[in-house]
Amino acid sequence: MTLLTRTLPLIVRPPLPQTGRARRYLDALPISIIAALAGGAVLAPERRLSLGPEIVAMCAVVIVTAWRRNILAGILTGIVAIAAVRALPSL
Amino acid sequence: MHSREVSRAALDPANDNARTASLRALREGWPVLLEPFVGVAFGVLARGAGLDPLTATAMSALVFAGAAQFAMLDLVRSEALPVVVIATVLLINSRHLLMATALRPWFTPQPLLARLGLGFLLTDETFALSTSYYARGGHRLAYYLTGGLVLWSVWVGATLLGASAGAALPEPRQIGLDFAVTAAFIAIVVIGVRDRLDIAIALLAALVAGLLRASGFAVVAVLVAGAIAPVLRVARR
Fold first, then answer.
1. What is the pLDDT of residues A38-60, one digit of tens each?
2. Who's near B80: CB < 8 A, 6+ residues apart?
3. pLDDT value, residue B1
4. Nearest by CB to B201, which of A28, A38, A43?
């Protein structure tokens, strides 16, 4: 399955659009899909809308990643932030 | 003066041989090449989802796709239909179609089997590093191969470690490890956005996915939200 998407253009050379709407759509697809993965986990971690620790941790990840331009720093921040917020006694 | 010219020539990627291209890949790419240690988290979560260490490691070795593998775990836990799993993985990895197309000029002279092998090693990280190397005049496949093979080895080894030591490690939720994947997705989006429209697309996709997931459509949330939001870029201009 994953080999298919990786090698198809190397084998059959499909006429992928270089310009136009289809190209713009394909350009935006990766960010959209990855954001959708993140959005579901942050906004509805238990399959219902919640404003829980995930929102706080998400903000921390966004700030640190934008500042350090480093994905690993963002991941570590997220782990520490969510553990810290969960450890807080509920008010 | 002469020695400076010699060292400058050695610094030029265009003068690389296979060995210096491999060393350059390690020198330039080491922070990125360490990223698959997220594989430890994958191993732990895979174990939690009921996969044994061997199956989890084999999955990493054969599928070799971080985001897609995490999504597969999530969908399998949600008891999604196989067709939804396949469609989601294809959609997540559809970006590889474009990346492979961009790398075609350097891979085309190779025989079919070699192109299949090179394609298998294609990841966001190797793509980013290699296109930057080729843009600077580099032309060695050794650069791409080194990056790809190191990433693959680290990813598979890390999965085995996470899946085997999973029982000995604390519950992922206790130490926030369950959020590692989500944090990785968020960080990848933050690094990947190029303009305000990208930010709007990411926010729309995240919101739609969250609403769908909360409304009982969890198994298709990513598929639908991921496919809808890019329409913003088509509608613009």
1. 899 999 998 899 888 999 999 99
2. B88, B219
3. 46
4. A28
Task: Dig out the tokens for B174 from the structure.
Answer: 């206790």
In a domain, A83, yes or no: yes
Range of the structural domain that residue A30 is part of: 21-87
**Type of residue numbered B128:** A
Residue A69 lies in a domain: yes
Give yes or no for a contact between B53 and B161, defined as CB atoms under 8 angstroms apart.
Answer: no
User: What residues of B are in contact with residue A79 (Cβ under 8 Å)?
Assistant: 175-177, 179-180, 183
Mean pLDDT of each 10-residue bin along chain B, 237 residues long:
58 84 78 66 84 91 85 82 85 73 79 92 79 79 92 90 76 73 83 90 96 84 86 83
Measuring CA to CA, which residue among A86, A88, A53, A46 is closest to residue B174?
A86
pTM: 0.62
Residue type, A46: E
A contact test, residue of B44, B185, B197, B201 with most A CBs within 10 A: B185
Q: What pLDDT score does A55 carry? A: 95
Q: Per DSSP, which regions of chain B are E strands?
A: none
Reported confidence tier of residue A15, pLDDT bands at 50, 70, 90: low
Q: Is residue A26 part of a domain?
A: yes
Note whether B76 contacts A: Cβ–Cβ < 8 A.
no
Does residue A33 lie within any of the structural domains? yes
